[in-house]
Write a structure and sequence with these properties.
The protein has 355 residues and is an alpha/beta fold. α2 crosses α3 and α7 packs across α8.
Length: 355
C-alpha cells in the first residue's frame, strides 16, 4: 500500500512541543539530554538531529504530530521475525536522526528539514487508523524515533490504550533516563548494531559504539521489550571475520543465544556510493560465525535466501516458520510457541497463526 493512500489523519495542532531531558546553561543556552551528543544550543539553534532545538531558553521538539510517511507493512519487514509473525504493522516515520550514517538507506527522511510540509498526524489519530486497517501493531521506523521521543511516547500510549502494540526500529543511541521512559512504552524493538568498533561509529556514523551496547544490555536484562538486532554488512568496513566473531560472541555471551540477529546486505546509498553491494557469500559466512558462537536464530536480509530467512528449531532442526522474503510459507509452531516435533519452546511473542 502506498504511503499517501493512508495518510489522511486530519490532525490539527502545533508542530512543536516542549520536551523533557534537558538543562539550562549560562547565557540562555541549553543542553539537550535525550542522546549521548548532549547538544549545547543557543537560541534558535537545533541539534545534530535537526528536530530538537532551543526556543526561548528551553528545548522544544519541532515536528511534533508531523510524519514523513505511512505504510502498512508485514512485521517481518522491520525486521522482526519472532514478534507476531505473519501480521501487519502500521509503519510511520518522523524526521531527523541523531546519527549521521554515510550509508543511510533513508536519508531523504532522516535528513528532512521541511517539517511543515509533512503529513499532520496526532497520536490518537494514528492509533485509530491502525485499528481501521487491521494492524495489531504500530512501528516507529524509516528514521530513528529517538529524537522525536515525546511524540513517539505519546503515540505509543494512545496505541496501548486501544490494545495495539508499539514497536520501534532504532540505532539505540540514547541516554539512560530517556531510554528507560521510551522502552516502558514499547513491546518490541529492532536495534541496528552498525558495527563492533568505535572507529566505524566515529568515521561513518558521527557517534560512538558504547552507548549502543549499553542500550542492548538494558533492553535484554532490565525490560520486557522483545529484542532483535540488525547489522548491515558493508564490504571492507565491518565484515571481517575477526569483527564478526567479536560482535556475535558479545551478543551470545552478554545478551544470550536466543536474541535473533539479522545480517543485512548493503546496497550503495547516500554518501557511500563507491562501495559495492554485499556478496551473498559474506552473509553466509557471517551466519556461520554467529552460529559457531552459539547464536540460535541468525537471519539474512536484503537477499533472496529462503534458508537464511526461515526459523528452525535449534534442538531438532525442524522448520518452525518458513519465509520467502516477507511471505510466510510454513508454520511449525504450536499455539504455545513450541516446536511441533520435539516441544522445544521458540523464543518470541507468538499468537495463533492461520496460513
Amino acid at each position: 500500500m502506498e504511503m499517501k493512500s493512508i495518510a489522511n489523519f486530519g490532525f490539527q495542532g502545533e508542530a512543536w512541543r516542549p520536551t523533557r531531558f534537558w538543562r539550562p546553561l549560562e547565557g540562555g543556552k541549553v543542553e539537550c539530554g535525550v542522546c549521548p551528543h548532549r547538544c549545547r544550543l543557543s537560541e534558535g539553534e537545533r541539534g545534530i538531529c535537526s528536530v530538537r532545538g532551543n526556543a526561548g531558553g528551553a528545548v522544544v521538539l519541532h515536528g511534533y504530530g508531523r510524519s514523513s510517511g505511512f505504510a502498512v507493512d508485514p512485521i517481518e519487514k522491520k525486521p522482526l521475525f519472532h514478534f507476531l509473525p505473519g501480521t501487519k504493522v502500521l509503519s510511520f516515520g518522523t524526521a531527523g536522526c541523531n546519527l549521521a550514517c554515510r550509508f543511510c538507506q533513508n536519508a531523504a527522511i532522516s535528513q528532512a528539514g521541511d517539517l511543515e510540509a509533512q503529513v499532520a498526524a496526532g497520536p490518537e489519530a494514528i492509533a485509530r487508523r491502525a485499528l481501521e486497517l487491521g494492524c495489531p501493531s504500530v512501528a516507529f521506523t524509516y528514521n530513528d524515533p529517538v529524537p522525536s521521543h515525546e511524540y513517539c511516547v505519546d503515540t505509543a500510549q494512545a496505541c496501548r490504550e486501544r490494545g495495539l502494540r508499539p514497536v520501534a526500529v532504532s540505532a539505540g543511541y540514547q541516554n539512560a533516563g530517556p531510554r528507560a521512559e521510551f522502552y516502558r512504552h514499547m513491546d518490541a524493538v529492532n536495534i541496528d548494531l552498525k558495527a563492533f568498533t568505535e572507529s566505524f561509529y566515529r568515521r561513518l556514523c558521527a557517534g560512538r559504539l558504547q552507548p549502543v551496547l549499553e542500550t542492548l544490555e538494558y533492553l535484554r536484562k532490565e525490560t520486557r521489550t522483545w529484542l532483535e538486532i540488525t547489522t548491515l554488512l558493508i564490504p571492507g568496513e565491518n565484515d571481517s571475520a575477526g569483527e564478526l566473531d567479536r560482535l556475535t560472541g558479545w551478543i551470545a555471551g552478554t545478551l544470550g543465544p536466543d536474541v535473533p540477529l539479522h545480517f543485512s546486505a548493503f546496497h550503495p546509498a547516500w554518501k557511500l556510493l563507491d562501495v559495492p553491494p554485499t556478496p551473498l557469500a559474506t552473509l553466509v559466512e557471517a551466519r556461520r560465525i554467529a552460529r559457531g558462537n552459539g547464536l540460535r536464530h541468525v537471519y539474512l536480509g536484503n537477499v533472496s535466501c529462503p534458508d537464511g530467512e526461515s526459523t528452525f528449531c535449534p534442538h531438532c532442526g525442524r522448520l518452525l516458520i518458513g519465509r520467502d522474503r516477507y511471505r510466510l510459507s510454513a508454520w511449525g509452531l504450536t499455539e504455545q510457541g513450541a516446536c511441533r516435533g520435539c516441544g522445544t519452546l521458540c523464543p518470541g511473542v507468538f499468537e495463533a497463526h492461520r496460513l
